[in-house]
Amino acid sequence: MNNNSQAIVQNNAFAFCRWSITIIIWCAFFLKLEWLVVLSFVILLISALTGVAHSPLIVIYTQTLGRIIPSKKVVLNKPAMRFAHSIGTLFALICLVLLYTAPVAIAWRVVLIFAIIKTISAFGFCPASKFYTCMSKGGCCAFSKKVFHE
């Protein structure tokens, strides 16, 4: 990974970002508040457009608590994070479209799925980022690497 494809942020800021979005989506689900889904969409969209180092939640943490309680730095793959934020933005948009067009029960079940996926991501296993990393290296298994690299 070259320097142009790396973002270096405080580890605590990155954790704050992951967990904040997750909590927002769970609150949206349990409280049935569409505006919280809108909030998650906006945050993820800005993060996808500006990159992880300039993500709103990363910046908020770094400029507030990160000044008081600095943490060690973590090196992130910028393209993988942009892809993950883009997938999250798309998922939030799908949730919003369903909330305003589909039967309410179906829409909130999709929000539940989104919350579960974001929880998995918050624990450090981001499926979208892992998928991007696998595919950018030619596949996620030995067979696909042989097929795509020959």
Strand content: 5-15%
Distance from N terminus to C terminus (CA atoms, Å) equals 22 Å
Shape: globular
Describe the main β-sheet briefly: 2 strands, antiparallel
User: What is the total domain count?
Assistant: 1
- State the strand order across the main sheet: 1-2
Count of helix runs: 8
Q: Helicity level, as a percent range?
A: over 70%
Structural notes for this entry:
The protein is mainly alpha-helical and 150 residues long. The protein has one domain (3-149). Helix content is 74%, strand content 7%. The chain is built from eight helices and two strands; from the N terminus they run βααααβαααα. It has helices at residues 11-31, 34-50, 56-63, 65-68, 78-101, 104-122, 127-136, 142-149, and strands spanning 6-10, 73-77. It has a two-stranded antiparallel ribbon. The longest helix has 24 residues, at 78-101. It is globular and about 45 Å long. The two termini are 22 Å apart.
Question: What is the element layout, followed by pairings?
Answer:
Elements: E1 6-10, H1 11-31, H2 34-50, H3 56-63, H4 65-68, E2 73-77, H5 78-101, H6 104-122, H7 127-136, H8 142-149
Antiparallel strand pairs: 1-2
